[in-house]
Design a protein that fits this description.
The protein starts with a helix and ends with a helix. Helix 1 packs antiparallel against helix 2, helix 2 crosses helix 3 (63-79) and helix 6 crosses helix 8. 69% of the residues lie in helices and 0% in strands. The protein is mainly alpha-helical and 198 residues long. The chain has helices at 5-34, 37-53, 63-79, 102-109, 113-121, 125-136, 141-148, 152-179, 191-197.
Length: 198
């Protein structure tokens, strides 16, 4: 089998088309991981260049998945979340894994993408990377810890702690919304006014 420049151009244009169709989703991933719109664009372009370079070596059906993995790797290289002090922290004795269930994670993933991204961008980088890789990208604990170069147990603790923190914020918000319901006489009151009245 000989290499054909025409086939290469066709594959490259197919890759560009795939990136164009998936650009919003890929840009969301880049921005959520880096927390920086300018760096997100740079990472996306670098991943596209790398994908185009190896386009003939990869099955087309796997191209998007492969591109997502490249984006994750470029983001890790640029942000270096494993340098976070959180990676070196001790596991608190009071923390129990039972606080967080798959249902809690599904609740978070059911949020509109812009709201979820806003919440994730409030996190420090390592927590954000661990949560995105585990909950959104479907990496298992071991692959996440290897990719981020952190301890396997620390990876699990960070994931559970992050999911628990985000879930608590969600529940607190829901609780505040319930407090802003109608008073017995039918008058609507804001949560802040209700809290001040109590």
């Amino acid at each position: 089998m000989t290499w054909n420049a025409k086939d290469h151009k066709s594959t490259a244009s197919e890759c560009r088309a795939l990136f164009a169709v998936s650009q919003e989703e890929l840009r969301w991933l880049c921005h959520t991981l880096t927390g920086d719109p300018a760096l997100s664009t740079e990472v996306l372009q670098a991943a596209l260049a790398q994908a185009l370079k190896g386009a003939n070596d990869v099955f087309r059906d796997w191209m998007l998945s492969w591109s997502r993995r490249l984006i994750v790797k470029f983001c890790i290289a640029h942000i270096q979340p494993q340098q976070s002090p959180l990676a070196l922290c001790a596991y608190p004795a009071s923390f129990t894994a039972s606080r967080v269930s798959h249902r809690h994670v599904r609740e978070l993933l059911a949020l509109p993408s812009s709201e979820l991204q806003h919440k994730l961008l409030q996190l420090e980088p390592l927590s954000r990377f661990v949560f995105v890789l585990r909950a959104l990208e479907g990496y298992n604990r071991r692959d996440t810890s290897l990719l981020l170069n952190i301890d396997d147990r620390a990876c699990e603790w960070i994931f559970l702690w992050t999911a628990g923190t985000l879930t608590s914020e969600l529940r607190n918000r829901d609780s505040r919304e319930e407090q802003s319901s109608f008073l017995p006489d039918g008058t609507e009151i804001e949560a802040q006014q209700l809290a001040a009245a109590l």
